[in-house]
Amino acid sequence: MELPGHVHTLVVGAGFAGIGLAARMLHTWPDADVLVIERAPSVGGTWRDNTYPGCACDVPTSLYSFSFAPGAGWSHTFARQPEILAYLEGVAADTGVLERVIVDCALEDAQWDGRVWQVRTGRGALTADVVVAATGALSAPSVPDLPGLESFSGTTFHSASWNHGHDLTGERVAVVGTGASAVQFVPEIADRAAYLTVFQRTPAWVIPRLDREFSSAEKRLYRRFPFVQKAFRGSVYGFRELLGGVLAHATWLLPVFTAIAKLHLRRQVRDRGLRRRLTPDYTIGCKRILLSNDWLRTLDRGDVEVVASRAAAVTPDGIVDGEGIEHPVDTIVFATGFTPTEPPVAHLLRAADGTSLARSWAGSPTAYKGTTVSGFPNLFLLYGPNTNLGHSSIVYMLESQIAYVLDALHGMRREGWTAFEVDADVQQTYNAAVQDDLRSTVWNAGGCRSWYLDARGRNSVQWPTFTFEFRRRLRRFDSENYTVSSR
Fold it and tell me: What Pfam families is this protein classified in (predicted)?
């Protein structure tokens, strides 16, 4: 497919957000003038990129799928990466989105010129009436700038860019980071490596992952009676919303979860000293709660060492910890997460005066309803500021945003709007209310420093309350809060 000279709606990114929006646009308007550009050679987003051993979803599969394409063939209650990728590829093909995608086409720059977006990509230039940034919050791996890293004589890579061509068998492997990806791949590589050294800056609360296989009978039932699957999805959603309410606001119930996590730790780790190193000193839920049935057990192995210190520097033959002790290793795997408060796409989106979105945010992202930004007309952000969750599925939040975007596009068609920009005071008032709601939550008041907090110490990541409240607020495009231009 050739890059057109102009398109009405340009979607940047072909992961869950981009595929979901384009699919709903084509369902609503089969003639929709929509184009999706993707920097990689194929669709799938984070589920295409993250192929590390054991990669799986930590949200129930029932929720981690589009409501318009629930899928009846999932193998587990917590789906594995290959299944999720195949699912996204299938949705893109079945809905006609794949025909609207140009791959190997990275966004290089996009500036609003007062009338349209002037866009430059790796395949050429075009203009667009509307730009939708659907690049996600987990698209840019974060690798710490450790002194001496360039001198390391072994192999290094990030878990989000797993080097499958490198054999870890018999090697001394260092894992830097103990977050959501590490708890999945460390148990998978422990048997291959000769010795594992895990650098833990801050321990995490870990509870069991209640994972099981869907039976053949369940799959047949879902295929034959879709309403049964819909009802099951609803029950899982309801339970998760209750869980979210507890995590965010009912802090008096958090000791129950703490007790579960401590029991899980006691059952899987025999060494009392190691248990102490693996016990957090902050309130459960302040950082992301990790789900695993074998992470703690793996750390208790004789050929695995937990260094309760940051990785301070790298030498040609190893890593030096915060105490100045060098640990000889052959391979370093960084499990250090992403940069959700500093998305790379923000550097590429520019207002009419040339100011980038990143510069406008100055390290502390804000948006109206997580979706639009004052000063940047005809721009939508999917998975924008303060839309992340600690209990449920981001897909639900994305579908809420998609409905908002579709209503705005409907207004462009029906009313002849050419441009819309959220009023600055409306955006400021909205974000002040969100921050006020976050103040008493465990993410803000739990006594930890997490990736939810940006460079200013402000929580610009989490949504503070129930997801159905977010959906209610985005049920229609509230043009009265925008400056709207018409033909």
Answer: Pyr_redox_3
Give the pTM: 0.95
Spatial CB neighbours of 403, under 8 Å, sequence gap ≥ 6: 24, 471, 474, 475
CA–CA separation, 186 vs 193, rounded Å? 10
Q: Distance (Å, rounded) from C-alpha 354 to C-alpha 174?
A: 43
Which pair of structure tokens corresponds to residue 63? 């929720």
Residue 117 has pLDDT above 70, yes or no: yes
- In angstroms, the CA 216 to CA 275 distance is 40
364 near 458, Cβ under 8 Å?
yes
CB atoms within 10 A of CB 195: 19
Q: Is the pLDDT of residue 250 over 70?
A: no
For residue 347, give the 3-state DSSP assignment.
helix
Residue 366 near residue 459, CB atoms below 8 Å: no
Q: What is the pLDDT of residue 40?
A: 96
The DSSP code sequence of 203-269 is: ---EE-----BPPHHHHHHHHH-HHHHHHHHHHHHHHHHHHHHHHHT-GGGHHHHHHHHHHHHHHH-
Return the higher-pLDDT residue of 246 and 141: 141
Strand segments (E) across 290-429: 290-291, 304-307, 311-315, 318-321, 326-328, 331-334, 349-350, 379-381, 417-422
Please determine whether the domains at 6-140+340-486 and 149-209+245-334 fall in the same fold group of CATH: yes
Domain ranges of the chain: 6-140+340-486, 149-209+245-334
With residues binned 3-state (H G I as helix, E B as strand, rest as coil), the percentages for the chain, rounded to 5, are 35, 20, 45
Torsion, Cα of 260, 261, 263, 269 (10° steps): 160
pLDDT of residue 24: 98
Above pLDDT 90, what percent of the chain? 85
**CATH entry, 6-140+340-486, from 3.50.50.60, 3.30.70.20, 3.40.640.10, 3.30.465.10:** 3.50.50.60
Tell whether domain 149-209+245-334 is in CATH 3.50.50.60.
yes
Q: List, for residues 176-200, the tens digit of each pLDDT value.
A: 999 999 999 999 999 999 999 999 9
Q: Spell out the residues 6+ positions from residue 319 whose beta carbon is closer than 8 angstroms to its own.
A: 146, 174, 176, 197, 199, 311, 313, 326, 327, 329, 332
What's the chain's Rg over C-alpha atoms? 23
Name the more confident of 137 and 206: 206
pLDDT at site 341: 76
Tell me which residue of 116, 298, 271, 56 sits closest to 193, measured CA to CA.
298
